[in-house]
Amino acid sequence: MSPLFPCKISYFFSVSHSTFTKLRLIGGNSNCAGRVEVLHDGQWGTVCSDDWDLLDAAVVCKELGCGEAVSAPKSAYFGEGTGEIWITGARCIGSESTLMNCGFIAWGIKDNHTKDAGVICSDLSFLKGVRLVGGSRCSGRVEVPHDQTWVSVCDAAFDQQDAEVVCRELDCGAPVQVLGAAAFGRGDTQMWTQDIQCTGKESYISVCPTSSSLKHNCTRENDIGLLCSGYTEIQLMNGLDICSGRVERQYFSKWGTVCDACWDMRAASVLCRQLNCGIAVSVVGSDWFGEGSGEIWADVFDCDGNETKLSECSISSWSRAECSHRRDAGVICSNLSVVRDQ
Questions:
Q1: CATH number of this structure's domain 128-228
Q2: Beta-carbon neighbour count of residue 91 at 10 Å?
Q3: Contacts of 148 (CB under 8 A, 6+ apart)
Q4: pTM of the predicted model, to two decimals?
Q5: Which CATH number is associated with domain 233-333?
Q6: Half-sphere exposure of residue 299, counting CA atoms within 13 Å on the CB side?
Q7: Which sequence spans correspond to the domains of the chain?
Q8: 159 φ, ψ (degrees, to nearest 5)
Q9: Does CATH number 3.10.250.10 belong to domain 13-124?
Q10: What is the DSSP letter of 48?
Q11: In this predicted model, what pLDDT tens digit does every residue of 186-238 receive, in sequence order?
């Protein structure tokens, strides 16, 4: 029979207040998210995630002044630590003011660090932190806060999953393109070179794990840039009311039409919901609402139909050469009672 605590059992006990005095979170690019480490006898060590839960995480967040516990990641989510595993089987009830007040199953064992415990706290003043510089609100050179300043990010440390998190955090839709080689100019700040390892599902880049062991050799020519879909407004034009018409969306302050090759009923359903126009009845071509003018936004919306706005849908690119205004998409929604302002 396998042991209840694979990180090795000793016995249940509490540790005196003088045993360790410092606590920190490492590997999460934030003071309030990361691998839990405690200082004992001048040596930093980790916490085994066997029996680790939100009650334990709540005490850690409280002790660090980071709000409430959002998650208690296990199995070295924020990377493996080194040295001793000081705590195994933490038994907090959530009301303790410090981790040292909790009971433990074991203290000070030697084992591998594949089960190192982590914490993500709710203090958003720490969690939030990314900006795009040199472009617009939703495009530019990626910079993150580090040591009380903004630093650019090395292109080798950043990938598509990281881009999805940045665009989501900035409320800029989905990533359209990740651009290396200082596409938005070279920054005059320091550079983040540790590998960022988002899964693409996180709400904030600062809670993504980073690898201190995997650092890249980068220069200012390696500053990463990002282009998010970033549209801020969408409308139906040339219909009898605001719930039917030619689809037009604003993209970086420019209005343009949408190619019908990139449009389907699922995207139309999300559009109707976003405009408070009920559900989609039909997707039609330019012969219904006429041809538009100006830009043609030929991005394919990969909606599942349950999103509340189009910026929540994934986007993939489509060749502009495939479309002309003869293929402008139109939508008819179920709520046709709202008359367009004249």
A1: 3.10.250.10
A2: 15
A3: none
A4: 0.47
A5: 3.10.250.10
A6: 27
A7: 13-124, 128-228, 233-333
A8: -140, -170
A9: yes
A10: B
A11: 877 678 888 888 988 888 888 888 876 666 778 778 888 998 876 557 889 99
